[in-house]
Amino acid sequence: MASSVNPTVRRRRLGQELRKLRELKGMTAEEMAERLLVSQSKISRLENGRRSISQRDVRDLCSVYGVEDHRIVDSLMQMAKESRQQGWWHAFGDIPYSVYIGLETDAASLRVYEASLVPGLLQTPNYASAVTEGSWPEATAADVERRVQVRMRRQERITDPENPMRLWAVIDESALRRIVGSGSIMREQMEHLVEFSLQPHITVQVLPYSVGAHPGMYGKFSILEFHDPQDASTVYLEGITSDLYLEKPNDVQAYSVMYEHLRMQALNAEDSRRFILQIAEDWAGAGEG
């Protein structure tokens, strides 16, 4: 379950407030950087929530922006303090996509398109282990175990009995056909997918090969939405060495439209379940190969 104080979300919200103050002052990020003798990239990272900020930095920024209401300053400084706390994922060490985990932990809904793999929130432990071993050849057994533990912990967002996250997953047929680990692992994963898809807050749709060319051919992406209207919807694009987070309304709208096209082209939920069960039978016949 999401913690009461999510440092990632606090950084993000604090950055949004600081950006508003700068814009009200009529200053550009470049002008602000020159005023504080820091790089423009630092100002940008502070405002997009990708970098933690100290209470002293908040105080200095408020001074430059001419904020005289002590209640506003105190509120922003409290957010800065909370943004430096550690989320549950920090206990697992250096996780490269920790910013995403922080957003996912607080998200109200998630729309995900996957082209090559079963989405992480729907993976079995065995499948997650085989995926990690295959995609990270240099990983030690301890590395693999840690990644699997994080993935299983993330799944608490969709298994929370009181406040489950709404999940909509469109999965390309290739993700179901590619053998990961063994035939038995794949069969177990297919049955797991069907079981999850029966939950009222989870929708799984398969995009079959027969669709041909489709809008998702450029790669996987996720769209996160939040309960608080202050938290802008975010498109997440995962990379090998770095990730991309898109929050501009036009970007989010473009990906939302793309997702609607994928949903319309994919099999409906019931037909997708039957399709996945047929693939599970195929994997059962494949044995361990």
From TrEMBL:
Record-annotated HTH cro/C1-type domain positions: 18-73
Any coiled-coil regions, as ranges: none
SMART domains assigned: HTH_XRE (SM00530)
Gene3D superfamilies on file: lambda repressor-like DNA-binding domains (1.10.260.40)
Highest taxon listed in the record's lineage: Bacteria
Pfam families on file: DUF5753, HTH_31
UniProt cross-references to PROSITE patterns, sorted A to Z: HTH_CROC1
Protein name, per record: Helix-turn-helix domain-containing protein
